[in-house]
Write a structure and sequence with these properties.
heterodimer; A: alpha+beta; ten-stranded mixed β-sheet; seven-stranded antiparallel β-sheet; 47 helices; 35 strands; B: alpha/beta; Rossmann fold; Dihydrodipicolinate Reductase, domain 2; nine-stranded mixed β-sheet; globular
Chain lengths: 1208, 445
């Protein structure tokens, strides 16, 4: 226990020292209470006092309590002598008398001001809690009252949430305070929003009786930094009895108290608590948050760029008309200010364009007549303000402006479709001033009334064809059409087509217009083009982009036969696209009888888009089935593609056709069209038809049947007589069963059928058994290997060899042990090897154990080789261990050695790849996901390259680049370079000519070892990116050729004289394996764990040394990977030591090749977080560390101490 | 279990875009010599092209067009002299002559009667005027996405293109990508069942720059023309090439940049090329914290409801919400009713269940054309006069999603959209934000 000198409590009797200022009529008496506080009351109380006295409104005394833990019985302030009491106290409980006196004081009309931590006090004093309204800490829990905050414009009492009261954002944070009760005397004259910097309290609880929230602040910090995501009360008033309480949670320290946000509200709050009113003024420099309008006023293009958007939002949120009008007035007022920048004016005009009313018109009109940019700005508003006033303003300004300003106004009148402007525009349309007349003509077209059209026509009449007028008339005609005056539109289009001088596009526009209102007449014009083969494309182009209604199609049909062949072919394309059944008979007529093959073909093709009737179907069937027909293929395609119910009905009828050719073709069509409704008829055909029909039906059912037909198909398979039919049926069963989720439902009926079948009838069923994942199915297959019927036995073994589910692995090994039949052994091990490659949920060592078990059975050579291959494919370090140990016992060395090399190749991996182009990581080419790719991201050009670094000289046997998912993105010619120096390449050693998206290179003939391999595009496909979706390779490593890593050596004697930190490390390459993450990263044995040589070591760059640890983050990107560190520690004598270390994330440590520590973690680096005791042998000790990277930062640091070092 | 639910009866446009009928017939096929493979194309057979706006994207498009043997680029136009100069040298080098003409006013380029087609690669605020004027002049048009800078412009562009019957291809080149088409075909043909939700996952925004000074406009740039119809903003080099997008008066931020891709693909998969949302609910429109030359949102999100009751979330990736499991890319994701989905991005095509991707399409299923080269599709259509794969109306409707989302978010309230009349129902303020008057004497035609 610390002992403190008792400090006697005293009244700082300013009263007695300065009697002159006491007891003025309007001086309010205030008492500040302090003495205990977890905040620095010794410096804040004097300031609280000074702030009050400075106003000359108060006479202030201060009373200080005994220190914490001292006797409080004598502490008894004379509350009743004061108008207000300021609490800057949180600490020991007061005596009962003092408490009663305090409550009595407030109850009877005393004023109270609670400052910041004072609301932490007296958590268990219920009257106090009611008086202060809300509090924090002090043991306050849910029972203290609800959490209180502000939401949707009102105070929310939230009793539902559990949790303690009180937390806070970091001290000194800036935040914005929102005034919530502007009419309250304390808040009167304060801005709506103001800035403050302080410690913001959150999560306060309390009874909140008679509590008025005066101001809130939004707590935006994350929860771990004390934030709440709510608007928290910061100033509030409480009524208790007759007493007035002002509670401010602001004022954490002197800095915060000196800010106006605190001292202004504090002094005003004291005055209100003491007197019920506030006379103290709000200073002008009070830190108000500027309104968006204010910001907009000041905007000149160099400040924050958002006031405009925010001001629109303000206007949108204005709920009443009055508010919007007030905003408009404000905007107009800003416009009056001569100092406002042009950019602000422009923005304000834009705002007025969105929200302005006629009230803005006069002011905008004045701006409009300015002959400068302001005129255009004003127009941005006026053009959009509804009502005749704005139109008048624009119109009357026409004569008072000139140049671009006037042109702009003309355009705006056009956009507003101002009819009153027509006469003037019509006059100006004839002026020789090009800009003036063009704008006027355009606006007349835009206005587009009959009157405007009339005027435009007159211009046309007078001066011959004016192309500008044509465009305006086209625009007007469309408008008249939309307004329900198609005849007027028609007249315009027709008159235009009489003009000779039209541009081709204008003529096209007029024809399209005419087609839309009067197809027959319109088509007459199209015919003129169609009649000439040269312009036929133009003609049908006109039609292609139109909505082809019935009338247009009929118009086309009426004259079609007279067309030249080329035109006919083209118009048939149009009819096909139209999809309209009106065209059917004429198209069929051409398809049947036209003399030209091309026309007939195109007619049939057009039928793909037209719903067919039964007669046409018959015709097409005839063509498709006639081997002599030269349009058979198109007919077939039309039958597959053409829409319509009737076609499908006809196809179904065809199933019953006596002619097997027709019947089969209809079944084919049903399959191609994927007709679900063909399933039922097919099932009955498969049951009752002749055997050819049965076969055909079953084949179709394989495509069309779903799980619903599963059991029905099984019954079918049972009753089929021939083996072939059974096989076909079982194919359909397998396909249909694939989507059955319930395993029992899939398996049991099938097994029943299998077991019910006799003798060799079981054989086809065994073929389908392999797709059932049920254990019963497996048991059944095993059972059948003992069937007396040799054919069944044989089929059972073959089924097991093809088994689909990895659950069979053990069974396969068991069976292999039991049978002496060499062929069956091989079959079983083939299955074993395949399944082993498929399983994902077993670790490499479990897989190796399975292989080891199989290999010890004494399998014959072929079967054993299959298992060895499977072993290699497991690819882990465990496979290598097995081969080097027991493998050597079981098999001759020359058989094992190449296998070990292959495993090693996979372990060391695919090297590190970089590319000359592309932002995507090359990782995408190695992730075994063919949907992701590496790509250059730009069309390939000669010289683009990819480069692999294998760390050591290797021999590359085979490479595969797979680009099938972007099937044109392969480089047609690649040159292969090999080198041990990435800056020096000689001649290409090989050139690959790729003709397909998969480029496979056999490089085994190159008996060269090199560390680097580079592929360079030697010829490129233009406009195509170069991409690789997947890439794989076989690489041969020869460990003996690799040099030992260069190791830094550290001396313990040196380390112990300093801080013990090992700063010298060899650092490995980064290792990763697709799919290996989390804890598995720590367990996965990457190359250095197989042989320390294989780390790709380099000495640690001092730049990677960060105070006390190695920081991998900056230099090595990515996650889900591992890295290794290596150091040689030298001691003179055998010695016991401690390793103290920390890691981000997981870590595993080996000393002299023995694992001494392992921890999976996803954690930040902390110094000395872990410790292990070690014994170092005399001389050199090899220390290897593996650090995994889950995500985020990546680091490791280790120091050595003597075991009894006190600094631990 | 895959459930196939066909959409409504295909529309006329479906037939136009469909593989089968549309381009199979002999006479429509462009001769192989015109495919830019080996053959020589007689000058009279070539499509003569002028390029308007040859900065970043415009120059790439022009180079791509030029690589086709049946194209002759004869003119470039830009208000930035170095850009047009450098484009001219590439073009002249390609053709081995000095014939390419440089213009600084696109109207002079459009006045040339020998030009068949134009490429418009200008910033967003400069799409509508050149496109409408090119249509008037009867030029076929390849124009970058997003189609328009506001909704009214988009409508006017559609009207002009349709009025004059010119061929129009939008630069939404994802429509020509094999993966995108396959995803759309799976959705269109009902293999995902009825679609109840779509995620349109766009890139994150957050471009911030607080510049101190505004340097003078370089002599080689006509900045007055560059700003053109848009509200004035002082010149800053960091608000020009590639970065004009982050100033909402010139571009539309990541939202408008990408809505014309992933939003467009969403519509393409749903067969909604001529439709749009009925309701747009704002969720998020966060402005960059500290920036005086950019004002595009850093985070944005809004929700749309379509006629069928289907909902669509449009948001930047980090704000897309919980229905999106991060597949690493931005893209489009359609959800069927039973939780199955298809996701497509530029590098990925994923589905749940994965089996959906192995679907065997029926002979009469809706299939898109197989042309992978978006520019080639345009050139073919210029010859055949058929509708290209990214037609103007489709582009307008997909851009509309973004325009409406922006207005809803800025106003902070739900918009009800009349898809036919293209008006916001009962919201005058919103309707007044659909279009904007142009600066100076520019007009929407």
């Amino acid at each position: 226990m610390r002992k403190r000198c008792p400090v006697r409590w005293v009244v700082c009797a300013a009263l007695f020292l300065f009697p002159a200022i006491s007891f003025c009529a309007d001086t309010l008496r205030v008492l500040i209470v302090d003495g205990q506080n977890n905040h620095d009351w010794r410096s804040t109380s004097p300031l609280l006092l000074e702030l009050l006295t400075k106003t000359e409104r108060f006479h202030v005394d201060r009373i200080t309590s005994p220190v914490e833990g001292e006797d409080m019985s004598g502490f008894s302030p004379a509350f009743h002598a004061y108008n207000a009491v300021v609490l800057n106290y949180t600490g020991d409980s007061w005596s009962e008398d003092t408490r009663n006196s305090f409550v009595d004081y407030v109850q009877n009309g005393g004023g109270l001001v609670v400052v910041h931590a004072a609301n932490n006090a007296f958590g268990d004093w219920s009257e106090y809690n009611e008086i202060i309204g809300l509090g924090g800490w002090g043991g306050r829990l849910a029972s203290a009252g609800p959490y209180v905050y502000w939401e949707d414009d009102q105070m929310v009492l939230d009793p539902s949430s559990d949790g303690p009261a009180g937390s806070h954002e970091p001290a000194g944070s800036s935040f914005v305070v929102d005034t919530r009760c502007p009419q309250h005397p304390i808040m009167r004259g304060l801005p709506e929003q103001w800035k403050h910097r302080d410690e913001l309290y959150t999560h306060l609880r309390g009874p909140a009786k008679d509590l008025t929230i005066l101001a809130t602040a939004f707590s935006g910090q994350p929860k771990e930094r004390g934030g709440s995501g709510r608007h928290e009360p910061v100033l509030f008033a409480v009524a208790y009895g007759k007493g007035r309480i002002f509670h401010t949670v602001l004022g954490h320290d002197v800095e915060a108290m000196k800010l106006p946000g605190f001292h202004v509200t504090y002094t005003r709050g004291v005055e209100w608590a003491a007197s019920g009113d506030v006379t103290l003024a709000v200073p002008e420099d009070f830190p108000a948050v500027k309104s968006n309008l204010q910001l907009l006023t000041e905007y000149d293009g160099t400040q924050e760029a958002h006031p405009f958007v925010k001001a629109i939002r303000d206007a949108a949120e204005a709920s009443s008309l009055q508010e919007r009008e007030a905003m408009e007035e404000q905007l107009l007022k800003i416009l009056e200010d001569p100092d406002v920048s042009f950019l602000a004016v422009q923005s304000i005009c834009d705002l007025l364009g969105v929200l302005g009313t006629e009230r803005s018109v006069p002011r905008l009109q004045r701006l409009l007549r300015r002959e400068d940019a302001l005129s255009h700005a004003a127009r941005r508003a006026l053009e959009r303000i509804p009502g005749s006033k704005a139109s008048n303003a624009l119109r009357t300004s026409l004569r008072k402006t000139k140049g671009p300003s006037r042109i702009g106004i003309i355009h705006s009148l056009g956009m507003r479709q101002d009819q009153q402007a027509i006469p003037r525009l019509a006059r100006w349309a004839r002026r020789s001033d090009e800009a003036l007349s063009s704008a006027s003509i355009y606006s007349l077209g835009r206005i587009g009334t009959e009157d405007a059209v009339e005027r435009l026509n007159r211009i046309q009449g007078r001066r011959g064809c004016d192309l500008r007028v044509v465009d305006a008339l086209l625009m007007a005609a469309e408008q008249l059409r939309e307004e329900g005056k198609p005849e007027r539109a028609r007249d315009i289009f027709e008159e235009l087509l009489l003009q000779e001088e039209l541009l081709k596009s204008q003529k096209r526009a007029a024809i399209r217009g005419l087609l839309s209102v009067d197809p027959r007449t319109g088509m007459n014009h199209v015919w003129m083009w169609l009649k000439d083969p040269k312009s036929a494309t133009q003609a049908v182009g006109t039609l292609f982009q139109m909505e082809l209604n019935q009338e247009i199609v009929l118009a086309i049909l009426s004259k079609m036969v007279d067309l030249p062949e080329i035109s006919l072919v083209k118009i048939l394309g149009v009819l096909g696209v139209s999809g309209r059944s009106e065209a059917l008979s004429s198209v069929v007529e051409l398809a049947r009888h036209h003399s030209s093959l091309e026309v007939r073909t195109e007619a049939i093709r057009a039928l793909e888009g037209i719903p067919l009737d039964s007669e046409t179907m018959e015709f097409l069937l005839g063509l498709a089935l006639d081997p002599q027909s030269d349009t058979g293929d198109v007919a077939k395609s039309a039958l597959i593609k053409s829409p319509g119910e009737e076609v499908e009905q006809k196809i179904l009828l065809g199933f019953q056709d006596a002619d097997p050719l027709r019947r089969d073709f209809c079944i084919h069509l049903a399959t191609q069209r994927r007709m679900k409704k063909a399933v039922e008829p097919l099932l009955s055909l498969a049951e009752k038809g002749d055997s050819a029909a049965q076969m055909m039906a079953l084949a179709a059912l394989r495509e069309l049947a779903s799980s619903r037909e599963y059991e029905q198909l099984i019954r079918l398979a049972e009753i089929c007589e021939s083996m072939e039919l059974k096989r076909e049926a079982i194919k359909a069963i397998t396909k249909a069963g694939r989507t059955l989720q319930d395993l029992d439902q899939r398996t049991m009926p099938y097994l029943r059928a299998l077991r019910n079948s006799q003798d060799e009838a079981r054989v086809p069923f065994l073929g389908g058994l392999i797709y059932l994942e049920h254990p019963e199915a497996l048991a059944c297959a095993v059972e059948m290997t003992r069937d007396p019927h040799p054919q069944v036995q044989d089929a059972a073994y073959r089924a097991l060899a093809l088994w689909q589910s990895p659950k069979a692995l053990d069974v396969l090994v068991d069976l292999a042990e039991k049978t002496d039949h060499q062929l069956y052994q091989v079959l079983l091990m083939r299955g074993f090897s395949r399944l082993l490659g498929q399983i994902e949920d077993q670790t490499p060592s479990e897989k190796v154990n399975l292989c080891a078990r199989a290999l010890t059975l004494g399998l014959e050579d072929g079967a054993a080789q299959l298992v060895l291959d499977a072993l290699v494919e497991t690819g882990g370090a465990e496979a290598l261990d097995f081969l080097r140990t027991r493998g050597m016992d079981l098999f001759p060395e020359e058989q094992i050695q190449p296998l070990a090399m292959r495993v090693l190749g996979r372990l060391v991996g695919r090297g590190t790849w970089t590319a000359s182009h592309g932002q995507d990581s090359m990782e995408n080419a190695f992730d075994r996901d063919e949907n992701t790719r590496w790509t250059t991201g730009t069309p390939m050009t000669e010289g683009m390259w990819i480069l692999g670094d294998f760390l050591f000289p290797v021999r590359i046997l085979r490479m595969v680049l797979d680009t099938r998912r972007s099937d044109t993105d392969y480089a047609p010619t690649l040159d292969v370079y090999l080198s041990d120096d990435p800056n020096h390449w000689t001649e290409p050693v090989y050139r690959v000519e790729a003709g397909a998206p998969v480029t496979e290179m056999d490089l085994s003939h190159l008996d060269v070892r090199s560390r680097y391999i580079k592929f360079v595009v030697a010829s490129a496909t233009p406009h195509k990116y170069w991409s690789i979706h997947e890439m794989s390779m076989d690489v041969e490593y020869d460990l003996d050729r690799y040099p030992d890593p260069v190791l830094p050596r550290v001396f313990v004697s040196d380390l112990l004289q300093g801080d013990g930190l090992i700063r010298d490390w060899a650092i490995s390459d980064v290792f990763c394996e697709p799919g290996v993450r989390g804890e598995n990263l720590l367990n996965w044995r990457f190359a250095p764990e197989v042989d320390v040589k294989l780390g790709g070591w380099s000495l640690l760059d001092p730049g990677e040394w960060s105070e006390g640890f190695v920081d991998f983050t900056r230099t090595r990107e990515g996650q889900d990977r591992a890295i290794y560190l290596l150091s040689m520690i030298h001691v003179e004598e055998e010695m016991d030591l401690s390793f103290l270390f920390g890691s981000d994330d997981g870590v595993r440590i080996w000393l002299n090749e023995e694992q001494i520590f392992s921890l999976h973690a996803a954690r930040p680096f902390r110094r000395d977080e872990n410790q292990v005791s070690v014994r170092l042998k005399k001389g050199d000790n090899l220390l290897m560390v593996k650090v995994t990277q889950i995500a985020g930062n990546w680091a490791f640091g280790l120091r050595i101490t003597l075991p009894d070092d006190p600094s631990q | 279990m895959m459930k196939k639910e066909p959409l409504d009866r295909p529309t006329r446009r479906d037939f136009l875009l469909k593989a089968g009928v549309a381009l199979a017939a002999g006479p429509w096929i462009v001769p192989s010599s015109a495919l830019g493979l080996d053959g020589h194309v007689a000058p009279s057979e070539r499509i003569v092209i002028g390029s308007i706006g040859v900065g970043g994207q415009g120059s790439g498009l022009t180079r791509h067009a030029m690589s086709h043997a049946d194209v002759q680029v004869v003119a470039v136009c830009d208000v930035d002299t170095p850009a047009s100069q450098s484009m001219k040298s590439s073009i002249d080098e390609r053709y081995g002559n000095q014939d390419c003409k440089i213009y600084s006013d696109f109207r002079e380029l459009l006045a040339r009667s020998d030009i068949d087609a134009v490429i418009v690669g200008t910033p967003d605020h400069w799409h509508a005027i050149p496109v409408i004027q090119a249509a008037k002049a009867g030029k076929d048009i390849y124009c970058e996405k997003p189609l328009s800078h506001d909704l009214r412009e988009g409508r006017a562009m559609c009207d002009a293109v349709q009025r004059y019957g010119v061929i129009f291809q939008t630069g939404s080149m994802q429509r020509s990508s094999g993966n995108m088409k396959k995803a759309c075909e799976i959705v269109r043909n009902g293999y995902l069942g009825r679609i109840h939700h779509v995620n349109v996952i766009l890139p994150d925004g957050g471009h911030e720059a607080y510049v101190k000074g505004f340097p003078p406009v370089p002599d080689s740039l006509d900045y007055e023309f560059w700003v053109g119809p848009a509200p004035w903003a002082p010149y800053h080099p960091q608000r020009m090439k590639f970065t004009w997008r982050w100033w909402m008066d010139f571009g539309g931020g990541q939202l408008m940049d990408w809505i014309g891709h992933h939003g467009d693909i969403a519509h393409m998969g749903l067969g909604l090329d001529e439709k749009g949302p009925m309701e747009i609910h704002p969720v998020l429109w966060d402005l960059p914290a500290r920036s005086n030359i950019y004002n595009a949102p850093s985070d944005y999100r809004f929700e749309c409801v379509y006629e069928t009751g289907m909902t669509m979330t449009v948001a930047n990736k980090r704000k897309i919400g919980e229905s999106y499991e991060d597949h690493g890319d931005t893209g489009t994701q359609w959800f069927g009713e039973d939780g199955q989905w298809v996701f497509v991005s530029r590098s990925k095509l994923l589905a749940q269940p994965a089996d959906l991707l192995n679907v065997l399409f029926a002979g009469n299923d809706f299939r898109f054309r197989t042309q992978h080269d978006h520019m080639r599709d345009f050139l073919d259509c210029v010859k055949s006069r058929r509708e290209p794969i990214a037609p103007v109306e489709a582009a307008h409707r997909s851009a509309s999603i973004g325009h409406l989302g922006k207005i809803a978010c800025i106003l902070g309230r739900t918009l009800k959209w009349d898809v036919e009349k293209e008006e916001v129902i009962g919201d005058e303020m919103a309707n007044r934000m659909l279009g904007k008057p142009y600066r100076g004497d520019w007009r929407l035609a």
